[in-house]
Design brief:
The chain has about 230 residues and is mainly beta. It is built from three helices and twelve strands, in the order E-E-E-E-E-E-E-E-H-E-H-H-E-E-E. It has a six-stranded antiparallel barrel. Strands 9-12-11-10 form a four-stranded mixed beta sheet. InterPro entries: TrmO-like_N, TrmO_C, UPF0066_cons_site, YaeB-like, YaeB-like_sf, YaeB_N_sf.
Length: about 230
């Protein structure tokens, strides 16, 4: 089977650090799907405007090393307990293929790059290759009441996020409006750290909208320091 990208994703994240660990966790996080030249035909999207959600099949392109272990350490288990790779959504897999459900915000039908799909809630890095797009169909894809294994027993706890007035002012001077700052706070509340790191004095950094966001985490509070 020969597989090649049909599109690439545009995201506020230029590296994988800080990206939400699942699609939908930061519902208002915006991104765009930009097609490769041979797929920039509006006919290929005909009827898409009638759907609310899409499935994206894509590549974990930032993984530089091939995964060989049959077990991984999911963040939801604290990053220390091991479970089988096929019982997780870990990005470190035998084949670097990701699957995400994203919400359609709107479709720009005429741009210099052909039709562009604007979506919300994605967990993809900037320039991520997309291999296929399929519509989300409620009667087939939704399973209310389904069990979620160990995830049901380990509820994700968000962090409290503190941004001082000085840092907030600087973010606005750098071009971030109130909406994008709120999205940043929601991203940070998901706790971007590797979950085996608990040093309250360590300063972490992540890219967002072309800026370097530096923060510390002490107990249950994340503080943006610059």
């Amino acid at each position: 089977m020969e597989i090649k990208p049909i599109a690439y994703f545009r995201s506020p994240f230029s590296s994988k650090f800080g990206i939400p660990k699942q699609a939908g966790l930061v519902a208002e996080l915006e991104g765009q799907i930009v097609f490769e030249p041979e797929f920039r035909n509006p006919d290929a999207l005909r009827g898409m405007e009638g759907f609310d959600y899409l499935w994206l099949i894509w590549e974990f392109s930032a993984n530089r090393h091939k995964a060989h272990s049959p077990v991984v350490r999911p963040p939801v288990l604290g990053g220390n307990e091991k479970v089988g790779v096929f019982a997780t959504r870990s990005p470190f897999r035998p084949n670097n293929i990701g699957l995400s459900s994203v919400k359609i915000s709107h479709i720009e039908w005429e741009t210099p790059h052909g039709p562009v799909i604007h979506v919300k809630g994605a967990d993809l890095m900037d320039k991520t290759p997309i291999f296929d797009i399929k519509p989300y169909v409620v009667y087939a894809d939704s399973h209310p009441g389904a069990r979620s294994g160990f995830v049901d027993d380990r509820k994700w706890q968000k962090l409290d996020v503190e941004i001082s007035e000085d840092v907030d002012r600087h973010l606005r001077l750098q071009g971030l409006n109130a909406e994008k700052i709120e999205i940043l706070k929601e991203v940070l509340a998901q706790d971007p750290r590797p979950h085996y790191q608990k040093d309250p004095h360590k300063v972490y950094g992540m890219p967002y909208e072309g800026l370097d966001i530096h923060f510390t985490v002490c107990d249950h509070t994340l503080t943006v320091v610059k």
